[in-house]
Design a protein that fits this description.
By secondary structure, this protein is an all-alpha fold. Helices cover 75% and strands 0% of the residues. It is built from 5 helices and no strands. Helix 1 crosses helix 5 and helix 3 packs antiparallel against helix 4.
């Protein structure tokens, strides 16, 4: 097994574990929303801090599922224009798009860590339930690291296609 395949396998295992956390956040979010709506409409007693919890759970669900979405190819790609170009040029464009995406996610991780530290120092909390926000920002930053790793792998594969070592 080549080093790149081992790297991809490791990253996929990590991403699947993170996806499980994101899925759990989605299930909890649905449960809280259901209980909140039923409580508010039938008993005139909404769940305290439901909006805060759902907002934070949305962050967890999206950020923790991002890497497996990329790895399995379930993200949106618009290729109608590049499909008109020669194959070699398509590979070059694909390489630079993935390089730009990697740079974006590296910056996202970096600034999310800085932002999370700022939230921690300022002791920022949610508006209603006063839930500390910084652990969720740290979690989102950590969850984006496998996305960076996936883009590194995709860049290597694109480079191999560009130079003609892999189709």
């Amino acid at each position: 097994m080549s080093a790149l395949l081992k790297f991809d396998s490791f990253n996929k295992k990590v991403s699947l574990a993170l996806e499980g956390i994101g899925l759990a956040a989605m299930v909890i979010m649905v449960f809280i929303t259901t209980v909140d709506v039923i409580g508010a409409k039938l008993f005139l007693r909404p769940v305290f801090g439901a909006l805060d919890a759902v907002s934070l759970l949305q962050l967890v669900a999206v950020s923790f599922a991002a890497s497996i979405t990329l790895i399995t190819g379930r993200h949106i790609e618009v290729e109608f224009l590049t499909a008109l170009f020669p194959q070699k040029l398509q590979h070059v464009i694909d390489f630079f798009v993935k390089l730009l995406c990697l740079a974006l996610f590296v910056a996202l991780v970096w600034y999310m860590v800085i932002y999370a530290h700022h939230l921690q120092v300022k002791m920022e909390t949610t508006g209603t339930a006063r839930i500390p926000v910084y652990p969720f920002a740290h979690g989102a930053a950590i969850a984006c690291i496998p996305v960076c790793l996936a883009y590194i792998s995709l860049l290597i594969k694109c480079f191999k296609r560009m130079i003609g070592n892999e189709s």
